[in-house]
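R.M. (postdoc): so does anyone remember the format we settled on? I'll just put the structure tokens first.
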């Protein structure tokens, strides 16, 4: 996922002391690969969030902020119970926000993601799923059942440009969006604005028209591209492809926000 703040917080690990929580009918012993936690996330859903970044992503976004999240074999292997113990240490501030699963692509570990979301809901916590939507609907079903909100990235509405940016096809994400509509699932659309790559205004108009037909879409976030992930790419020995574009200027951001307002939803940046 694309982080505005460039931070990932605490490396994945369970807390020093064991927190007690309600017995659950979820697979508490199920294990997954966890990249890290962020304990006071303010940009990944409503209120203050505990953000769990899961390891692994099938996309290869040129502007990826978290290239160290890509490899599904990395990260710490933790059980649902261990992650919940960490989350429940932060209960005091989570009452005004909740828990967000991000990554990487959290649905790459769809069973683990679904079990974590279910465990959070069982504690009365609001849950959000931050996803590219690149997942089969079968695999996404349980995680969606236990998500109160979805943060959906559509990285471009032009299929060729989407492929160039991510190396996967746009159709899978659009099918995921249609599933959100079918389920009346509340969601926020997130659009990363990269000069020269995702600033084609005609394509953005088409995306805005498309989104107008999604009653459960609550808001649109325009996220101006920045290069805060560049040092991670270099540390991993990956060639960073976006050395040239500067962050979008304010007038471009405003123009894109105005276009998205035609979808009839609040637009933020
Ligand atoms: S979807 Fe994957 S490759 Fe793309 S920005 Fe997010 S973590 Fe990086």
């Amino acid at each position: 996922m694309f982080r505005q703040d460039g931070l990932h917080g605490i490396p994945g690990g369970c807390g020093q002391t064991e927190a007690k929580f309600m017995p659950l009918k979820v697979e508490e012993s199920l294990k997954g690969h966890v990249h890290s936690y962020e304990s006071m996330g303010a940009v990944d859903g409503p209120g203050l969030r505990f953000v769990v970044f899961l390891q692994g992503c099938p996309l290869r976004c040129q502007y990826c902020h978290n290239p160290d999240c890509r490899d599904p074999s990395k990260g710490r292997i933790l059980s649902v119970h261990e992650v919940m113990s960490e989350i429940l240490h932060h209960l005091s501030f989570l009452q005004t926000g909740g828990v967000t699963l991000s990554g990487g692509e959290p649905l790459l570990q769809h069973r683990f993601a679904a079990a974590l979301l279910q465990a959070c809901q069982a504690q009365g916590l609001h849950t959000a799923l931050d996803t590219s939507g690149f997942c089969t609907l079968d695999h996404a079903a349980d995680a969606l059942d236990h998500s109160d909100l979805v943060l959906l990235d559509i990285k471009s509405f032009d299929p060729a440009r989407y492929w160039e940016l991510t190396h996967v096809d746009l159709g899978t994400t659009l099918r995921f969006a249609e599933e959100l509509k079918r389920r009346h699932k509340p969601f926020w659309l997130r659009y990363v604005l990269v000069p020269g790559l995702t600033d084609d205004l005609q394509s953005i108009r088409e995306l805005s028209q498309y989104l107008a037909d999604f009653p459960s879409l609550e808001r649109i976030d325009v996220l101006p591209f920045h290069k805060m992930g560049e040092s991670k790419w270099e540390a991993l020995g990956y060639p960073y492809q976006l050395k040239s574009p500067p962050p979008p200027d304010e007038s471009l951001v405003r123009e894109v926000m105005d276009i998205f307002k035609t979808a009839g939803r609040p637009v933020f940046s």
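R.M.: ...and that's the designed sequence above, right after the tokens. Also worth knowing: The chain has nine helices and ten strands. The pocket of iron/sulfur cluster is lined by residues 1-2, 57, 59-61, 64-66, 69, 103-105, 132 (CB under 6 Å).
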